[in-house]
Amino acid sequence: MSLDACAALVAKGDPDRFATLMAAPVPMRARLLPLYAFNLEVARAPWVTSEPMIAEMRLQWWADLAEQIGQGRAPAHEVATPLAALVTEARLPVSLLDAMVEARRRDIYNERPNNAEFDSYLDATAGNLMWLSALALGAGPELEARVRAVAWGQGLASLLQAVPELVARGRHPLPHDDISALAQDGLRRLRQGRFPRKIAPALWPAWQAKGLLRLAQAEPQRVAEGRLALPEIRKRGTLLLRSVLG
């Protein structure tokens, strides 16, 4: 199967991440698309039903799929087929895919996480995705901690934007209500310096994170009000600068 189906999924369901793909060189897109499509499908699995058991079954399907990919017997599927090819070609650790699925089980239920659980959730979701993306582009193990730190900040920024919708669905996504402190922690983790140009597109999904977290730190009420967003012209200009500078 081609990557067209993955591209269509990401373009519709995760347009900001898709914008970073379009700014990347074409060969790199082929390595990032299957990961982004997998992430999207897993992330939305808990939300397609209000029945926890059905949501658990949907996530288990993706967990089983990750296991099958690791065993070299993935079924023909619009996401599984290109993902399995990528895992084989880039020698990606399937355990990280499985951990992404397991972390999303928390989204099914409404318990508020403690600080350790929250940190683990962001690392297993945003962190694993960004690290797998960096590995797919040739990152070495010495970069893992730095990539994961950036991913944590990016994941936090995205989660803060989703807070009103999550609260409306009866969820308690944050470990506490001190938005400014959370944003400050995210900003601290984003300060990782420059990365090798060859893996830069893997980091581009964090292109809005600094601006969003600064806004959340200065005006935390924006989070609950659903007003945590950057002006469109600033978003586009920042991404363009990232693509030019690498």
The description of the largest β-sheet is: none
| Oligomeric form | single chain
Radius of gyration: 17 Å
- Fraction in helix: 55-70%
Number of domains: 2
Which outline best applies?
globular
SSE blueprint:
Layout: H1 4-13, H2 15-23, H3 26-44, H4 52-70, H5 80-90, H6 94-103, H7 115-136, H8 144-168, H9 179-190, H10 200-203, H11 209-218, H12 221-225, H13 232-245
Structure description:
This protein has 13 helices and no strands. It folds into two domains: 108 residues, no CATH class; 137 residues, no CATH class. Helix 4 crosses helix 5 and helix 6 runs antiparallel to helix 7. By secondary structure, the protein is mainly α. The model has no long low-confidence stretch (mean pLDDT 94). Helices cover 69% and strands 0% of the residues.
Can you tag this structure with a few keywords?
mainly alpha, 246 residues, 13 helices, globular, 2 domains, single chain
Would you kindly provide a brief summary of this structure?
This protein is mainly alpha-helical.
